[in-house]
Amino acid sequence: MPRDGSNALFESNLRSLRRIGNGKVRDIYALNGDKMMILVTDRLSAFDVVLPDPIPDKGRVLTELANFWFARLRHVVPNHLTGIDPESVVRGEDEKAQVRGRAIVVKKLKPLPVEAVVRGYLIGSGWKDYQASGKVCGIDLPGGLAQAQRLPEPIFTPATKAASGHDENISFERMCEIVGKDVAQKVRDISIRLYKEASEFAATRGIIIADTKFEFGLDEKNQIVLIDEILTADSSRFWPADQYQVGISPPSYDKQFVRDYLETLDWDKTPPAPRLPAEVIARTSAKYREALERIAGKKLS
Predict the structure, then answer these.
(1) Nearest to 116 by CA among 159, 154, 80
(2) pTM: predicted TM-score of the whole model, two decimal places
C-alpha cells in the first residue's frame, strides 16, 4: 500500500491465471489458445529502474489512453486487441478489481525486436545527438536548429529493444538487416502516418506530441499488427501547446517531473531507487490524469 493511502497497484496477483512475464510496468498472464492478458500496474520506472512507490491511477490512465488511440487509429493498421472483457476471464471480486480498467486481453503475436520511434521535435537524446553531430540517429538535419524546435518533417529513428538497461538507437539500414527490408519499410511508413494523424488530433486539444514509440508484431499471416501500448505518457512526450517555447525543454505530461526530482539527489541511477516524497507522487499522478482528460476528454471514475 503506498504511503498516500490510495489503493494503487504495485504488483498484481491473479491466482486463476498463470503469469508468463512482467516488465517494468506490465504483468503478463497466459490465457487459453492464442490470447494473453496484459495488466498495467501503477509501477513507474525512471532511468530504467523501477521505483519503490507506485503512482496512483497511472495504470488505469495508460490503459484508457491507449485504448482511445487504438480505436481512433485502427483504420491505419490492425491492433492486437480482442475485445474480450478482462473481468470475464478471472475469478473472484479481488481479481476482478485488479484487472478493472487496467487490463486488456490481446492476441499472441510474434513481436518485432525493434522499437519504432518517430520524432517530430528536437529533444531528449535526439537533441544531444544533434548537438554532437548535426544528425539524429544518422539522419542529416539542417544546421542551426534549437532545442525543442519542430523538425521540417517527422523522422523515423528505430531502436533495439533491450531486456535490461537502455535501448540502443540503430540506423534504418540496421533495422532492415534485423527484420527484413519489406517489413522495415512498412513499419516506418505506418509509424510516421500514426504519428502524423495522432499529432494533428492532439493539436486540436492543445497538446504537442514531441515524439513517440510504437511496437509491432506479426500475425500468423506475417501481417503487421500494432501491439503493446500506444501514444501514452509512458511512450510519448506530450507538451502543453500554450507553454511551448523553442530553446527550452517544455514541461511534459509524463514522468519527467519524477526524473527532475531524482536528478537533485545523490543517486547513481542503479537499484535500489530512492523513495519518492508524497508531493512528487501526487503531482505525477495528477499529470497522468490531466493528459487523459486533455487528449481523450475523459476523467477516471
Answers:
(1) 159
(2) 0.94
Instruction: Please give the grid coordinates belonging to residue 277.
Output: 516524497
Q: Are 219 and 225 in contact (CB under 8 A)?
A: yes
Domains of the chain and any CATH numbers: 1-108 (3.30.200.20), 111-243 (3.30.470.20)
Question: Which segments within 87-126 are labelled E, that is strand?
Answer: 103-107, 110-111, 114-121
Of 73, 95, 100, whose CA–CA distance to 12 is shortest? 95
Hunting for cell 509524463 — which residue is that? 254
Residue 140 pairs in a beta bridge with 135
CA distances from 108 to 7, 42, 111, 200 (A): 30, 23, 9, 31
> Mind giving me the DSSP string for 201-231?
HHHHTTEEEEEEEEEEEE-TT--EEEES--S
Of the candidates 277, 288, 297, 124, which has an alpha carbon nearest to the alpha carbon of residue 201?
297
Tally the C-alpha atoms within 13 A of residue 135's C-alpha that lie toward its C-beta: 10
What would the grid cell of residue 42 be? 501503477
For residue range 114-133, list pLDDT tens digits in order.
Answer: 999 999 999 998 999 999 99
Q: Mean of the pLDDT values across residues 222-232?
A: 97
Average of per-residue pLDDT across 135-155: 96
Number of residues assigned to the chain: 301
- Write out the H or E segment, with its range, that includes residue 262: helix 256-263
Instruction: Give every CB contact of residue 132 below 8 A, 6+ residues apart in sequence.
Output: none
Among 65, 18, 115, 97, which residue's Cα sits nearest to residue 232?
65
